[in-house]
Design goal:
By secondary structure, the protein is of the alpha/beta class. 43% of the residues lie in helices and 16% in strands. The chain has helices spanning 4-15, 20-26, 31-40, 44-47, 64-73, 79-89, 99-113, 175-189, 218-227, 243-263, 271-286, 290-299, 376-383, 403-415, 420-433, 436-448, 455-462, 481-493; strands at 130-137, 144-145, 148-149, 153-159, 165-170, 195-198, 205-208, 214-216, 230-233, 267-268, 312-317, 323-326, 329-332, 341-346, 350-355, 358-364, 372-373. α1 runs antiparallel to α2 (20-26) and α14 (403-415) packs antiparallel against α15. The longest helix is centred in the middle third of the chain and has 21 residues, at 243-263. The radius of gyration is 38 Å and the shape is elongated.
Length: 494
């Protein structure tokens, strides 16, 4: 069928005095077609009627009642699942090539007779009113630091009016990660909106009352109060209510993946380099939102005078095993702290250990439960005097810093079983008192030469050269007569 524009062109040419043949040729149509539109005096759109009949019969009519019965019983059944059942029951009636046709029939039935669907209502955002935040996992992007996989999360904050965003790197969805991420992002943005919406995190939402009201945790409510934010959260199971940040997750991770592909490598030298790279990517993305950001920035409230730096504080006593237990995880500490009561400040990534008001030690925080972080440097000076305790030590596997140390101990067990524990502990003591990297290099060299990694052999390789005596320096004697002679000659020539 011809378009309205083609018929209009033919009519215009005919009006300008062209013959029917000439007008039809100009409009790229046959003479009978031109004559039809001249007689009807209507455009093709006016002649077109909605088709209320099928051009082909329904090939599934014999079993369509069975299909409808299943669709009504469970609307979540997929068309592909039902078609597979039809193929099993009637292999002589249907072929695999009819799947797409069956899917179209099921889609048409659902549009006419299927259950109602949830409607997502487009929201009108106001500048400075709402910020949404959530955590997103970055493991699927394959980021590595110096060749080592780097599993991590990002705390992601988005202002819903301008879509300006900010991020903070973290490793769990704890309250500390939430609080530090929120503070970091707000101070990056330079202002505070009226409301903050998050998911139903246990770090923020304590309980949900029968009437639907949320009861916030004391720490989260204190954080909101410090910044003057009104806390809100989405209905459980309704992620679209936090849709701005969810969509930003998807777009941001897409942008990260594309930037990594352009970069040609997903490996970074260290964490700081990776964070700086992410922040530069965020800066470029926010640079495309300046029109609305200028309007939103003017509507944001000012930041408080100082960050809150919220953290959880616990009082723990160091056991006789020179360990402490924090949030169901075990950490070793220097033996001088045994029987000391420590104040532990729990932050997103580290534990700060205080003796009174003095920070005595900072430890990387473990995430999860029933894990252990035992630093051999805290224990080795006592353990080397009690080598018999090593064989059945509860955290013995934690005393192998790297793979070469583990392989060295296995070699000692095979070659010198009676002295393996003592020799290995002396090697470990050497690593603690000198350089772990040097001892590791020595163990690697001994393994390559198939030499038993006994303490004497390792010490011989890592022994530092003796200090060379510095030569005595004397006061130089300066003879200025040479310069005086040069001046005399210069003056005579002048």
């Amino acid at each position: 069928m011809k378009t309205d524009a083609e018929v209009y062109l033919m009519l215009r040419e005919r009006k300008n005095g062209k013959t029917l043949e000439q007008a039809a040729a100009r409009a790229n149509m046959s003479v009978p077609t031109a004559r039809k539109y001249l007689r009807s005096a209507k455009l093709p759109s006016a002649l077109r009627h909605a088709r209320d009949y099928r051009t082909r019969s329904n090939p599934f009519i014999a079993d369509w009642a069975w299909v409808e019965q299943h669709l009504k019983r469970d609307p979540a059944l997929q068309a592909k699942t039902l078609f597979s059942l039809l193929l099993e029951q009637h292999p002589d009636r249907y072929t695999a090539g009819q799947l797409r046709t069956f899917q179209r029939h099921v889609a048409s039935w659902r549009a006419l007779h299927g259950p109602e669907k949830d409607i997502i209502f487009e929201q009108h955002h106001q500048p400075g009113r709402l910020a949404q935040s959530d955590f997103t996992h970055m493991d699927d992007l394959g980021i590595t630091l110096s060749g080592v996989p780097f599993p991590h999360l990002l705390f992601h904050l988005v202002l819903t009016y301008s879509n300006v965003e900010a991020i903070s790197l973290c490793f769990s969805e704890s309250f500390e990660a939430l609080a530090e991420g929120l503070e970091f992002c707000l101070w990056q943005l330079g202002g505070v909106p009226q409301q903050h919406r998050t998911d139903n995190l246990s770090a923020a939402v304590q309980t949900i009352e029968p009437d639907g009201c949320r009861r916030w945790t004391d720490r989260y409510f204190g954080l909101m109060t410090h910044y003057g934010l009104t806390p809100t959260t989405n209905t459980p199971g309704e992620a679209h209510e936090n849709g701005d940040v969810e969509q930003s997750h998807f777009r941001f991770k897409q942008a990260v993946d594309q930037a990594l592909r352009v970069r040609g490598s997903r490996d970074f030298a260290d964490r700081a380099t990776y964070i700086n790279w992410l922040q530069e990517l965020i800066r470029k993305r926010n640079g495309t939102r300046q029109a609305r950001w200028t309007e939103e920035l003017a509507a944001l409230r000012p930041l408080p005078k100082a960050p809150l730096h919220p953290c959880r504080e616990l009082s723990v006593r160091v056991t006789r095993f020179s360990t402490i237990r924090v949030l169901h995880n075990t950490y070793s500490v220097p033996s001088r702290l045994i029987d000391t009561t420590l104040t532990v400040r729990i932050r997103a990534d580290v534990l700060e250990l205080y003796v009174g008001t003095v920070c005595a030690l900072t430890l990387p925080r473990l995430h999860g439960r029933f894990q252990a972080r035992i630093d051999y440097r805290h224990l080795i000076f006592s353990l080397v005097r009690k080598p018999g305790a090593f064989g059945h030590y509860r955290y013995r596997d934690e005393l192998f810093p790297t793979t070469p140390f583990r392989l060295a101990y296995d070699t000692l067990l095979a070659r010198q079983p009676s002295r393996a524990d003592k020799e290995y502990l002396r090697v470990l003591h050497l690593a603690a008192s000198t350089s772990e990297a040097d001892v590791e290099a020595a163990l690697t060299l001994l393994a390559e030469s198939r030499t038993v990694p006994a303490f004497d052999a390792v010490r011989e390789l890592v022994r530092r050269p003796e200090k060379v005596a510095m030569p005595a320096l004397t006061q130089p004697t300066l003879d200025f007569q040479v310069y005086d002679a040069l001046l005399t000659v210069r003056c005579a020539d002048g």
